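A common beginner's mistake is to predict each chain separately and then try to dock the pieces by hand. The better habit, illustrated here, is to supply every component at once so that their relative placement is modeled jointly.
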Amino acid sequence: MMFRKSQSLLLSLALAGLSIGACGGDDDDNSGNTPDSGNETFDAGTEFQCDPVGANAAQGTLFNAPVADDVEVIVKEPTHPGAPGPTDLP
Amino acid sequence: MTKKFGIARLVGMAGLVGGLSAVSAYSFAKNTHTVEPSKSTSAAAHGGGNVSCSTLTNPVYFPATTLIESLLGKVAPTLADAKIMGDDQMTIVHVPLSSCITYETHKDQVPLTGTAVYYLPNGTQQACDMPVGNEAVLSDLSAMDVGGVTCLGGETPPADLTEYPSHVETLGFVVPRNSSQTAITATEAYYMLKFGGEQGRSVEPWTDPNFVMVRNPGSSTQLTIGANVGIPGTAWSGELKGHAGSGDVRDEVIAENTTGNAEKVIGILNSSKWEAAIDDMRVLAFQPFNQCFGAIFPDSTATSRDKRNVRDGHYPIWTNLRYIVRTDDQGAPVTANGAAAAARVARFVELMTGTAIVDGLDVATAVIETGNIPSCAMHVAREVDGGNISPFEHPAPCDCLFLEGNGVASECATCDENTPCASGTCRAGFCEAR
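With all components supplied together, the output reads:
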C-alpha cells in the first residue's frame, strides 16, 4: 500500500514503536537527537532506536530526517523470517 | 548454499578473453560463473568482420562498466567529431565489462581482445574487433562504479592508479511492470540474496532463485547493493540467476511480464536502464537498515525523476563512477600506447569529470539525461563504497539544472548575461542558490 507522509504518520509512529525491539537497544550515544527535534520518529520517544550503532549517528540522522509531504513512503509488512537487521542476522 | 567467488578468478575468466563477445561466451545462467566455453571462442570469434579498432581515429582503449553505455552513447559521438573537438578529437573504444574486471584488466594491463563498441560523429554505434597477436593493444584507462579497494578485497590499490570520481549512479531493485510489489526492506534483501530461496529463509514473493536476476561478483551493481543490505556482492547465493551485463538483467525482467511469473521476479539494475524502460518495469522503494519510517524510492515518488531521496541522503543505494588512470610520479596520465594516447586520456577525464568544458559537449546534461546525477546536484557524499553517507556541499551547485533537466519545475529564476540573478549565482542559465 502507498501512503503520503501525512497519511502514514500514525503508521510510522507505530512502526517506530515496533522498531524499539526490532533494532536492538544500544542507545548509549543518541548524538543530540532530542524530543522536539522536528523529526516525528525521534519525537515519538524512540530517538536512535532505529540506529543502534551510535558511531553512525550522522548516518541515522540523514536516513531518519523528516521528508517533505510530497514524498511517497511505503510502510511494508516485512516478509522475511526472524527479526530485522542489521544485527543478529543469520 | 552460499558460495564465495574471488575477483581474481573472474578476471582469470574474463580478462584473458576480454571484450563483449568473449565475455558473453561464458554462462551466467546461475550466479556461479561456471566456465562454459562457447563453440565460437576461437580467433574467428574475434575477427567477426568488423573493422580493427586500431584503425579508428585517435582511439582511446577503454574497458569500462556496462553502466556507462548510455552516457557514452551521448558524449562519444561528440568526442569523435573533429568539427567540435578539433585537435582533441578522439574515438572512445568501449570494451563493456563488469566493474572489477575492467579494473583488473587495466591494472594488470591484460591485452584487450574481442569486440568493442564505438560511435561515429552522427551518433551511430559501431563495433570493432580488437587486434590480436603482435598487434594486440592495452587499455588506456578504465571506469567502474566502485573503488579499487573494493575490487581488491580491502587491499590498498597500486599507487600509480589514480581514481577520478565523477557522477552518481543510482541503483536499486526492479520488478516487471506486471508485478504488484512496491517495496523491499534491507533485511528482506539480505535473506533473499544470501539464502536464495532456501527453505525457512525465503522471502515472499521472491522465493524462487531462478527469478532473482542478479549480475556477478565483479559487478559494481551487485557489490554496491550488497554493501547496503549486509551481504557482500561476492557472497550472494550461487542459486540466484547471474547475468553478464545490466542490459541482460533488464531484458530478462521485462520478458517475464508476459510469462505469468511476473510476481516472482526481481532484479538489480541502475536507474538509467530502468528509466529507459519505465513502461515495462518499476523500481522498488527501499527501506535501509536503521531507517525508521518506511521504504522510499530514489525519487520523491514512484513516478517522479528528481532523485530527491538520493541527493539528500535518504536513499543509500548509489555509487560514484570512477575513472581509473595510470599516472606518473607527477600525477600525469601515462599509457602503454604512447604520449599522444596519454594526452587524450587526460583530456577525456577532464571533460567527463567537469574540470574542463568544450562548447558543443554538455557532459552534465548528458549525465542527467541518462538518469544519473552530476556531483554538483548532490547534497551528500561517501568516501567508501556502501559506507556512511555524510552531508556534502558542492562548490558550484547545479540543483536547478538537474531538476529542469529531468522535467521537474525547480522554481529557479532563469538568467543570462543580460538578466542577472537577484540572488545566488547564474549557472547554466539558472539562478542557483550559491
